[in-house]
Specification:
Number of strands: 6
Strand order of the largest sheet: 1-2-3-4-6-5
Order of helices and strands: HHHHHHEEEEEEH
Helix content: 40-55%
Distance between the termini: 26 Å
Structural class: alpha+beta
Largest sheet: 6 strands, antiparallel
Number of helices: 7
Shape: globular
Radius of gyration: 16 Å
Oligomer: single chain
């Protein structure tokens, strides 16, 4: 399990008033058609922060699927992209202790107080990195968000490790700083 996720789970009782298992039990009795509905429910009814609510809902969906399994499934048949994914995680975790990594079925959300990046293995040879940097002009490399919709404002297509350069790190840092 990812260290940040483990820390979040360990801190959950103190920060939210319930353990992960208690949250799972509570959600078991509810029926939500969308992930976002369950997140909104926890935020509204229990004053849980977005990061904790998102993690609780994600981990409550399927008891048997861990965050590691979710990532492993995303990269099945796309194993050559794993070093790029791991390098991106290393970069964002270096920004501060307040970064949360939240794997989902098809992507990994990167959250501070708000989500600021999305990592998605889109093809066998490409990771799409979604960024939320409002009012930032697009470029040939820093494209319009495309398939990420409203969560992200921009997308960067990554085919190789060398593309995680200083320019990309600056964009990630800018998105992180704006996600307060």
């Amino acid at each position: 399990m990812d260290k940040a996720l483990r820390t979040m789970i360990d801190n959950m009782p103190e920060k939210t008033g319930k353990s992960l298992n208690e949250w799972k039990s509570l959600l078991k009795g509810k029926s939500f058609s969308k992930h976002s509905e369950a997140v909104k429910f926890l935020k509204k009814e229990y004053n849980v922060t977005h990061g904790f609510a998102n993690t609780i809902v994600t981990l409550s969906k399927e008891e048997d699927i861990t965050a590691v399994d979710l990532v492993k499934n995303q990269y099945q048949g796309k194993e050559d992209l794993i070093p790029i994914y791991e390098k991106l995680l290393s970069v964002v975790k270096g920004f501060g202790e307040d970064v949360t990594i939240s794997p989902k079925k098809a992507s990994v959300s990167v959250i501070r107080k708000k989500q600021f990046a999305l990592i998605q293995p889109s093809t066998k040879t490409r990771i799409d990195l979604g960024l939320k940097i409002k009012d930032k002009p697009t470029t040939d490399r820093l494209e319009n968000s495309g398939p990420f919709g409203t969560m992200c404002t921009h997308r960067v297509k990554l085919l190789q490790m060398s593309q995680i350069d200083n320019e990309l790190k600056e964009w990630l840092k800018e998105a992180y700083l704006k996600a307060e």
